[in-house]
Amino acid sequence: MKFIRDLLDKSVKKTKKGKLSLLHPMLDAVDTGLFDPDNPTENAPHIRDANNSKRYIISVVIALSPVLLFSMYHYGLKVLWMLVFSYAIGGVVESCFAWFKKESINEGFLVTGLLFVLIFPINTPLWIFAIAIVFGIVFGKEVFGGVGQNPFNPALTGRIFAVLSWPSAVSPTKYIIPDGYFDKLYLQTSDALTTATPLSNLNSSNLVESFNPGFLIFGPSPGCIGEISSFLLIIGGLYLIATKIVNFRVPLAALVAISIFTGILHYLYPASNPSPFFHIFTGGLLLGVLFMATDPVVCPDTTTGKWFYGFFLGISIILIRKFTPLPEGVMFSILIMNIFAPLMDEGVRAVRMKKEKAYE
C-alpha cells in the first residue's frame, strides 16, 4: 500500500499543473477514495469527527450492496453493466466540472451512481439512462455549486426528467422472471395480473389485498431494480441507523405518517384502500425513505425539522399515490420536501429564538 500511496502522491503533484492537468481531478479522487487526505484545514472551523464524508459514502454503499447483488442474481448481468455505465458516464461529467472549477472529484458519486441504477427499471434503454445521469448531475447538483450545495437529490432529479420525457420507456413493464412467478406473487387469480406492478392496481378493489406477503417483503418484487426486496432494504437502513450515518427521525416519522393515514383510509373504505402493510412494502417507498430522503445535504438540520420533514413526506407520498394518476409518489414527494427543508429549519429556529427572547 505504501508503494501505491507514494505513486499517487507523485502523480497528483505532477498533474496539478501543466499539460497533464486534465488528469488531476481523477487521480486526486482515487487518492481520496483509497486514503484519507492528510492535508490540514487552512481556515476555521477545524472540526474533528469520525463520521467524515468517506465513512458516510462507504457505509451507504455497504448498506445497498445486498440489494444490488440480489438484483444481479435475479435480473442478470445487465444490472452490472448499468452500474459500470452509470459510473463511466457520471465520472466523465464529474471530471469535466472538476477540471473547469479546478476542484477534485467528490467521492459522493459512488452513492449517486449506485442510486441511478437502483431507481430505474431493468428494461430502461441505455441511451435514456445516460441522458438521465447527465441531467441529474448537471441540473441536480453542479449548477448549484456541486456537492453540499445541491437542494435536490441528483439521482431523483435525473429519474424524474426521464419519467416526464419518456414515461412509457422508463416504466417497469418488462421483467426477467421465472416460470410461475406471478402465481406465487398473487394469492388469487385475477384478470389484472398482466399489469406491471402491485402499485399499478392500487385502486383496484378486487386486487389490492391479494398479494403474497412473503413476496412483498422478501422478493423478488416487480418494479425498479432497487425495489426487488424490502427485507434487504430494511436491513441496510437499520445498519445505517445503527452506525449513525442516517438519522432515524426522518424514516420513522414518514412510516408513522403513512401508517396512520393509510390505516384511516383502510378502516373507512377497505374495499378501495389497501392496508398500511401494502403501501410500505410496495414500490420504492423503503428505498426512498431510508436512502434518499435521509441525505444530510437535502434534509433539515434541526431535530424538530427532521420530524416535520419525515411526517409530511409520508403524507405527500400517499396523497400522490391515491389522488393522482401517478401510481408511485415517492420520488416526487422527496423532491417537494427538499424544497421545504430549509423553510422548516428556518421556522424551527425562529420559534426557538422567540422562546429564548421571552425568557430574557
Question: How would the blueprint of this fold be written?
Answer:
Elements: H1 2-15, H2 24-34, H3 53-75, H4 78-101, H5 109-118, H6 126-140, H7 154-165, H8 181-185, H9 213-218, H10 230-242, H11 249-268, H12 276-280, H13 285-292, H14 303-323, H15 330-359
Helix pairs in contact: 1-2, 3-5, 3-10, 4-5, 4-6, 5-7, 6-7, 7-15, 10-13, 11-14, 14-15
Tags for this entry?
single chain; 360 residues; mainly alpha; 15 helices; 60% helix; globular
Describe the protein's architecture and organization:
With 360 residues, this protein is mainly α. It has helices at residues 2-15, 24-34, 53-75, 78-101, 109-118, 126-140, 154-165, 181-185, 213-218, 230-242, 249-268, 276-280, 285-292, 303-323, 330-359. The longest helix is centred in the last third of the chain and has 30 residues, at 330-359. The model is unreliable at 18-24, 41-48, 174-183 and 188-196 (pLDDT under 50).
